Amino acid sequence: MPDNSNSTPTDTWDVVVIGGAPPGENVAQYATQGSDRTAVIIEKELVGGECSFWACMPSKALLRPISVLDNARNLPGVQSLVGDHSLDNAAVLRRRDEIVHHHDDTSQVDWATGVGIDVVRGHARLAGERTVEVTAADGSVRTIHARLAVVLDTGTTATVPPIPGLREARPWISRDATNMHEIPRRIAIIGGGVVACEAATWLAGMGVQVTIIGSAPKLLARNEEFAGDLVADNFRAKGMTVHLNARVDAVSRPQVNDAGEGLIHGGEVTVTFGDSSVTVDEVLVAAGRTPASRDIGLETIGSVAEAAAAHRGFVTVDKHFGVEGVDGDWLYAIGDLNGKALLTHMGKYQARICGAVIAARAEGRDVQTPWTTDSGDDVVPQVTFTDPEVASVGLTEAAARAAGLTVRGVEYDLSWLAGTSLQRDNYVGRAKIVVDEDTHALLGATFVGPDVSDLLHAATVAIVGKVTLEQLWHAVPSYPTVSEIWLRLLETYFNPPSS
Ligand SMILES: Cc1cc2nc3c(=O)[nH]c(=O)nc-3n(C[C@H](O)[C@H](O)[C@H](O)COP(=O)(O)OP(=O)(O)OC[C@H]3O[C@@H](n4cnc5c(N)ncnc54)[C@H](O)[C@@H]3O)c2cc1C
Ligand SMILES: NC(=O)c1ccc[n+]([C@@H]2O[C@H](COP(=O)([O-])OP(=O)(O)OC[C@H]3O[C@@H](n4cnc5c(N)ncnc54)[C@H](O)[C@@H]3O)[C@@H](O)[C@H]2O)c1
């Protein structure tokens, strides 16, 4: 890690942010921009956080060549150029390394200092109201004070479930998979969620023999059921082995040699589940995330630590991201740490609100504006960059029914569109909208197929804007784009349009 933190002559700032991921950067910026307020970000690893160096960015860098090759293999005229060639794995890893700036955060620190935000390196812990203690790498401890606010943005770490032998086997976690330097010949992935499915996509795409062992009945189980089915079908067609409803009983690795992140951590590993077992060269744990709330001094602030413990470690917040149970409007929690939506773009959305609230409170303005209140609706867009991609927003039909809403789900096969037939051969995909039958507004949408990710924002806009299907009827998609899925879904819903 380069020592490029700026020298900070003061020990008091208006706003102190613990954790320098994009939400932390955004909250510092929004709380101070256009004012003479000061802010500092305290970061123990790299400014840019998990997303920039170990999560979103490297994973998407690894996935992109796989989707390009898959499209090329299914497009006559281009197909013959790529033939049966596999990926140039070394080049893929080199590009990934460039995208994560070889784990050098200089450009992110330069951005922060460029907009007037200071950066302090070290592990921060709350030490009472508006007070933070920072332990630097050399063990020295510095006390920092916040005039206005402390914002917690410490994120999450990979969960390693208490499976006998698993921890001792030194399994890969997501950081190893996204930053792999050695490519195992065979891998077992424990988990069937987003991390498991994206990692399976790039590992298989790079020639690894992949076995997925997930405890849920479907892959990507938080989505509409057809999403997990289409992904599992394609995984199996590509030669992966997918076990669902499977409980891992034990993991055994006689030779452990953890040589570092992204390197194979030892000899062969055997994973036992039910009556089955698989022996592989590496095991990747992708079984969810644990909030980084244990070692940040929450116990020094009233009953916040107890409240977090009651919520699996997540720090509960109000609609302005103030930590619940803390008087004086000075402590906030954004990003993964509050458990509302474990996604970078949602953490940044929370940061924009939280920063504006801190600014409004500092200036004695009303905090209740159109910009400063969490919508409270479940409008969380997410793209899972698997093969095929899964893009979803809002409620699934099952979730809407469970919430007591009267809904209708409408589905359509994406391969029936002129737009997808032009994109490539062998297009397999499906879309679904969930419609509130009382208001005719959209509550949820899911698109599964190659390159569907950019279809999602139209659905997000429609849901946030509470646009009715009758209004959407007049939003005409261009021919022959994949956006014509909207027309087909509306036709299926109205079938035929009523007068
Ligand atoms: C493999 C993978 C791929 C993903 N892909 C996507 C994607 O494509 N799109 C998407 O939206 N989301 C994705 N996510 C989720 C996304 O990475 C997280 O939602 C996001 O990183 C959360 O941001 P955050 O600010 O809450 O925390 P983090 O990014 O975890 O950052 C927390 C920061 O706080 C620092 N910190 C922690 N404790 C302290 C302390 N005590 N003192 C000082 N510093 C501290 C950490 O070092 C870290 O830099 C992915 C996650 C994984 C695991
Ligand atoms: N493209 C993206 O937006 C993206 C990509 C990666 C991660 N993320 C975010 O990161 C978060 C974490 O992802 P994740 O995949 O680790 O968690 P997850 O909660 O999405 O999935 C965890 C999966 O592991 C399974 N599981 C749990 N314990 C298990 C066990 N003992 N044996 C077998 N299976 C087990 C669960 O059934 C579940 O399917 C997600 O909430 C997601 O929002 C987002």
Automatic annotation (TrEMBL):
Pfam families: Pyr_redox_2, Pyr_redox_dim. Residues 380-486 form the Pyridine nucleotide-disulphide oxidoreductase dimerisation domain. Its cofactor is FAD. SUPFAM superfamilies: FAD/NAD(P)-binding domain, FAD/NAD-linked reductases, dimerisation (C-terminal) domain. GO terms for molecular function: dihydrolipoyl dehydrogenase (NADH) activity; flavin adenine dinucleotide binding. NAD(+) binds at G191, G192, G193, V194, V195, A196, C197, E198, G288. Belongs to the class-I pyridine nucleotide-disulfide oxidoreductase family. This is Dihydrolipoamide dehydrogenase. It comes from Nakamurella panacisegetis.
